[in-house]
Design goal:
seven-stranded antiparallel sheet, 2 helices, 7 strands, alpha+beta, Alpha-D-Glucose-1,6-Bisphosphate, Chain A, domain 4, 40% strand, single chain
Length: 167
């Protein structure tokens, strides 16, 4: 079963900033934790990050459901410059209530100069039917709120022209 969530906003910055900031900047400033989702502390094995096919290991703080440390792997599935990213999060190291991967998309569309539509979506893949009601609730309520927080964090970083960590 796939549970889909989408949020969108307008960024008043350059198209390049709206496109590159969520993937190429410091992820610890984007995924700052919320509720059951712990704060990202750092990444490893990220030498080629930003290119199609690249991966990085995500490390998180300890939380109610996470022991802390290595938590998952991010993978870049597709990239179209200044338009589209597609990533996958998998290899979860803790119980995820039947979720086995999340596939995210970050789309940027220039409406006019310094007015960028950002469409941020996730497909949360689950395979344990008994958890489907919980999966639906998680996706439609909690994950949607979390995604809105990510949009806010990325927006602030884009406006402040946060340096890219990867090129």
């Amino acid at each position: 079963m796939i549970f889909r969530v989408q949020v969108s906003t307008i960024y008043n910055c350059s198209l390049e900033r709206a496109f590159k900031t969520p993937i190429l900047c410091d992820v610890t400033k984007i995924h700052t934790g919320y509720g059951l989702t712990p704060k990202v502390t750092h990444t490893t094995d990220d030498n080629d990050w930003g290119q199609i096919g690249s991966t990085k290991k995500i490390h998180v703080e300890k939380s109610l459901l996470q022991k802390g440390g290595f938590a998952s792997i991010d993978r870049i599935l597709d990239r179209k410059e200044n338009a589209y990213w597609k990533i996958q999060v998998d290899a979860f190291q803790s119980w995820m209530a039947g979720f086995y991967k999340f596939v995210g998309e970050w789309k940027t569309t220039e409406l006019e100069e310094r007015k960028i539509l950002v469409e941020y979506s996730y497909a949360l893949h689950a395979n344990v039917p008994i958890y489907y009601p919980l999966n639906w609730l998680f996706a439609k309520v909690f994950w949607k709120i979390y995604m809105k927080r990510v949009l806010e964090n990325v927006g602030e970083m884009a406006y402040e022209e946060e340096p890219y960590m990867y090129l």
